[in-house]
Amino acid sequence: MSKNNIMRSVNTHILLILMTITAMLSLSCCTYADPESTLLQAENDLQLGDLERAASSCDQLCDSAAIELSPTQLCRVALIYAKISEKCEQADYMAAAAKCFDKAIGLCNDSIESYIESLNIEDQSYVRVIREVSRTLNTPVDMSREFEDEEYGDSATQTGDHDGMTMAKDVSAKSTASL
Q1: For 55-84, how does the pLDDT look when each residue is reduced to its tens digit (9 = 90+)?
Q2: Burial letters 47-59, b for 16+ CB under 10 A, else e
């Protein structure tokens, strides 16, 4: 092999490597630059039954700090997560749906309402579930409320002075005394 052929071969390999790196960088930039195409791909993957890929696209949209989603886009992501949750029976996806929905509400509640009205009835039912999960996740549990003991007709109030074990002992002592 001549020196010229060796140089051409090396130059060709270097050129191919540079073109590959350039292509990879441009593809990765395009993926993050256009959330709408990623969202459309996730919706398409969901329709095709590729739940893992749809979830991955949604995760990419939600996890990237560089991507700004509109309230409508956030609702669409929430809807995809809710449908994946139903098909996979995994609550984590529904929690992610509620998180996206909460973020959308924080941006603009009016545009969300008009988007929801434009949905078909099936998708509106998903939104109702998402809202309920969101409400449940965002409602703090009141640990100071009174608990009724139906068996003994007593009520005990859990306060800072009582823990669960103290309450159980109190109820147990009352039931023993009534025997």
Answers
A1: 999 998 888 766 788 888 999 999 999 999
A2: eeeebeebbebbe
Q: At 53, is the pLDDT very low, low, confident or very high (cuts 50, 70, 90)?
A: very high
The verdict on 71 and 126 lying in the same domain is: yes
pTM: 0.59
Enclosing domain of residue 14: 1-33
Q: Residues 114-158: pLDDT tens digits?
A: 888 888 899 888 888 888 888 887 777 766 665 555 445 544 444
- Check if the beta carbon of residue 144 is closer than 8 Å to that of residue 159: yes
Per the structure, the count of domains in the chain is 3
Taking the CA atoms of the chain, what radius of gyration do you get in angstroms? 28
User: SS3 string of the chain?
Assistant: CCHHHHHHHHHHHHHHHHHHHHHHHHHHHHHHHCHHHHHHHHHHHHHHCCHHHHHHHHHHHHHCCCCCCCHHHHHHHHHHHHHHHHHHCCHHHHHHHHHHHHHHHHHCHHHHHHHHHHCCHHHHHHHHHHHHHHHHHHCCCCCCCEEEECCCCEEEECCCCCCHHHHHHHHHHHHHHCC
